[in-house]
Design a protein that fits this description.
Elements: H1 2-8, H2 23-35, H3 40-55, H4 60-70, H5 74-88, H6 93-98, H7 105-118, H8 121-176, H9 184-220, H10 222-233, H11 238-259, H12 264-271, H13 278-292, H14 297-304, H15 309-321, H16 324-379
């Protein structure tokens, strides 16, 4: 800190004059910041395009140059520039990918390293692209299933809030100016509106503070984060959906690693932090330790308590037949189908219930709004 202050006011320190970055270093730093903004879907598309070029017989360095010239965005182009530079300097492609963890991730880098060692880089890249595309499609279906109910609730709450805050009080003032008492339904709505108007700012502030506090605590405390996600998995309906989602991701990742030729114990080292769920990551580490002690995969997974019997029992059979990698991919596809079916069933039940509740709420507000108008005719 003292050295930075001395350099800022123009003094020379014991470490010598302040170092001035060259133009190339500044451009390289700016390029790294641009490359870090490459989206997950763009990186997936790059992997598939690179695999297609390699399959067509193009060497790796020229293939990267072709992708660089056809990249649609500056961030993607800069990412390819950095990867091409690293590869041209003799680095392995997996090492070049590892410098961009946001775009490629640990699983992708491990699979590319296996493909480079086995000479099957093209096939591995196709597998990675397929795995990432299915995972992205899974998240898209989940978001799509949640979007419609959330939009319904948001629109209904906005309409109800507008009616109670602006429309009903206006008609109440007009009605009271004629010296008549308000109907009971309108008085109830006005009381609710006044209460919500006084409480809502404090409630919103408290909810925001609670959200920030919970987010910080979950971020800084691994034990609390583990307990939180364990509680979510125990929920009646949402817990089942979350389990199916992460089981599908886990099975597809392990199946992709095994099909690329990764040994089972090494695959668990890669999977330890890939799922993105602390409970499944801990279960993966526990199962990996059991496998190193000589336990079978199915028994190790059963001991963790995270994987349902519908996943463990087929794995036990596949270990005997030697078709574990293919079975894991099939189990992932089956879990995806079960998740889609559960989401459709939940949406079929939830959406009509939301419509009925919102209809009753807004209908009650409209009735409370028009009752004074009807009685106003009798007063006049």
């Amino acid at each position: 800190m003292i050295r930075r202050f001395a350099q800022a006011i123009g003094l020379r320190t014991a470490g010598g004059p302040p170092r001035v970055e060259s133009r190339d270093e500044r451009e390289r730093a700016q390029g790294r910041s641009q490359a870090s903004r490459v989206r997950y879907a763009e990186a997936t598309r790059l992997l598939r395009q690179l695999a297609s070029l390699l399959k067509a017989g193009l060497p790796l360095a020229p293939a990267l140059q072709v992708l660089q010239t056809t990249a649609p965005r500056n961030e993607t182009r800069q990412l390819l520039v950095e990867i091409s530079r690293d590869v041209s300097r003799g680095q392995a492609l997996s090492k070049a990918f590892a410098r961009h963890p946001r775009a490629f991730g640990r699983l992708c880098c491990a699979l590319v390293a296996v493909g480079e060692a086995s000479g099957g880089l093209c096939d591995v890249l196709f597998r990675i692209a397929a795995q990432r595309e299915k995972a992205a499609a899974q998240w898209a279906r989940l978001r799509g299933a949640l979007t419609y109910p959330v939009c319904l609730l948001t629109c209904g709450a906005a309409i109800a809030g507008a009616l109670t805050h602006w429309v009903v009080p206006t008609f109440a003032d007009i009605f009271e100016s004629f010296g008549a008492s308000l109907p009971l339904a309108t008085r109830v709505v006005l009381e609710i509106s006044d209460t919500v108007g006084h409480v809502m700012p404090w409630a919103c502030a408290g909810a925001a503070l609670a959200y920030l506090a919970l987010t910080l605590m979950l971020k800084r405390s691994p034990r609390l984060r583990f307990a939180w996600h364990t509680g979510l998995l125990a929920l009646p309906v949402a817990g089942t959906l979350i389990t199916r989602l992460f089981v599908a991701r886990w099975c597809r990742a392990l199946g992709t690693l095994l099909s690329a030729g990764t040994p089972l114990a090494d695959a668990f080292d890669v999977l330890a932090d890939v799922s993105g769920h602390p409970v499944f990551d801990a279960a993966t580490r526990d199962a990996g330790r059991r496998i190193r002690r000589g336990q079978r995969l199915a028994d190790a997974l059963a001991c963790t308590g995270c994987f349902p019997a519908g996943i463990v029992q087929p794995i036990a059979v596949a270990e005997e037949t030697g078709a574990l990698d293919r079975l894991l991919i099939d189990l992932a596809d089956l879990a995806d189908q079960d998740l889609d079916t559960a989401l459709v069933s939940a949406a079929t039940l939830v959406e009509p219930a939301i419509i009925v509740i919102l209809g009753a709420l807004i209908g009650g507000l409209v009735i409370a709004l028009y009752l004074p108008i009807v009685e106003l005719g009798h007063v006049v």
